[in-house]
Design brief:
Chains A, B: Keywords: DNA-binding. Chains A, B: This is TetR/AcrR family transcriptional regulator. The structure is a homodimer of 208-residue chains. The first copy, chain A, is built from eleven helices and no strands. The first copy, chain A, is mainly α and 208 residues long. Chain A has a domain of 139 residues: Tetracycline Repressor, domain 2. Chains A and B meet through helix 9, helix 10 and helix 11 of A and helix 9, helix 10 and helix 11 of B. The structure holds a DNA duplex (30 and 30 nucleotides).
Chain lengths: 208, 208
DNA sequence: CCGGGACCTGAGCGGGCGCTTAGCGAGCGT
DNA sequence: ACGCTCGCTAAGCGCCCGCTCAGGTCCCGG
């Protein structure tokens, strides 16, 4: 779970773990629809239609429309956290681990920007319990990045006056990639990852 | 329009330019509701209720619910652009102008985070014409920041390998403040502005 | 004291929403 | 060959949405 190929690519088909097939097709359709129009502007009829089913079919696999969002959000956050953890547990100094972490985290947010957009920006549509569960995952994400930065400061590699504030800014920067990234734009996910890794190293004062 | 007090504080009451009074109350109510729940999850009954009016009163001052969002978005973008222009036209070298620009831009996004959230994240709910108008304003915003960074590079003050990419990242970072800023959090808008100005100067390699 | 316009309300329309229910038909163990 | 189960659909329920409209209230010039 922390091997190199897991880290860099993850699973080829992002939703392979969702079964049966009809449930996965509905979930993929929901991701697309939520990303395009937002949760509240998406109708259950639209989701079912994209999956080639009647509106009622949705309720065989999911109790409510909100459960779809919850499942998407949970799986997406798990994936993002796994990517970050793999980088944080890797070899090398704080600078290299931070660089790898940002590069892979950003690459995921760019390549899977449809999913990431839903995961990162539709949180408020969740009910209190589901939202609390997701927020706990976000706190873990924050702790991982803060840990790397603290390591770098302790080792004298970084110069960071405000560790919590800088952590917040770094994560905000990476996550927001999902909002503006455009497949038809001039940059590949790899290029954005490399650019952002460089920018973040500058932010923490990793003089090289 | 580029004096110091205009730049730092703007108008005291943000929506003073909206008249008559009832129209302003409705608009303020809409900003709050859109920021809390999102455009699509907000009902016209909710907006009118917050403004202390009946649902029908809304349609005396605005043709549709979308016109409310359009007006909010337009005014907010104008204000954000004015803040940035004031900083870009200021005195001093590129580093100082970039610092002032980020500080005041971020301070606005933090202090007016309710408005900024609507302005920055509900764009997709607008119709094609309104959206095109707003996107033109965003391109101006981008051009202003890119201009300052280019000046710095040309003057040898900055070290920036990818000017458009860095501009995008800087703006993304500043704008995303509106998403996470919390009035009850540990940081004042001023403090966030100062932190971000420092981080951005590091991103452009403005050796101190 | 009256007439008129600006502003607002109560009631409600047409429609689309999330979700439910009754029942159909293909696949399969026996 | 049969009947059970599973996955699905057609139809539609009840609700609340954005929005409308006839009419009431109040202020103000004459």
């Amino acid at each position: 779970m922390s091997t190199a190929e897991e880290t860099s690519g993850g699973e080829m088909r992002p939703w392979a773990e969702v079964t049966p097939d009809a449930a996965r097709r509905l979930l993929v359709a929901a991701v697309e629809a939520f990303a395009e129009r937002g949760y509240h502007a998406t109708t259950t009829r639209d989701i079912a239609g994209r999956a080639g089913m009647s509106p009622a079919a949705l309720y065989i696999h999911y109790k409510t429309k909100e459960e779809l969002l919850h499942r998407i959000s949970r799986i997406g956050h798990d994936k993002a956290l796994a990517i970050l953890n793999a980088a944080a547990d890797g070899e090398g100094g704080a600078a290299e681990r931070l660089s790898v972490a940002v590069r892979s985290f950003v690459r995921w947010h760019a390549a899977q920007h449809t999913t990431a957009r839903v995961v990162q920006y539709e949180l408020e549509a969740l009910g209190p319990d589901a939202r609390a569960e997701i927020l706990a995952l976000r706190r873990q994400t924050d702790a991982v990045v803060r840990g790397i930065i603290q390591d770098g400061v302790a080792a004298g590699e970084f110069d960071v006056p405000d560790v919590p504030g800088t952590t917040l800014a770094v994560l905000s920067l990476c996550v927001d990639v999902a909002r503006w990234f455009n497949v038809n734009g001039p940059r590949t996910p790899d290029e954005v990852g490399a650019l952002y890794a460089d920018l973040v190293l500058r932010m923490v004062g990793a003089g090289k």
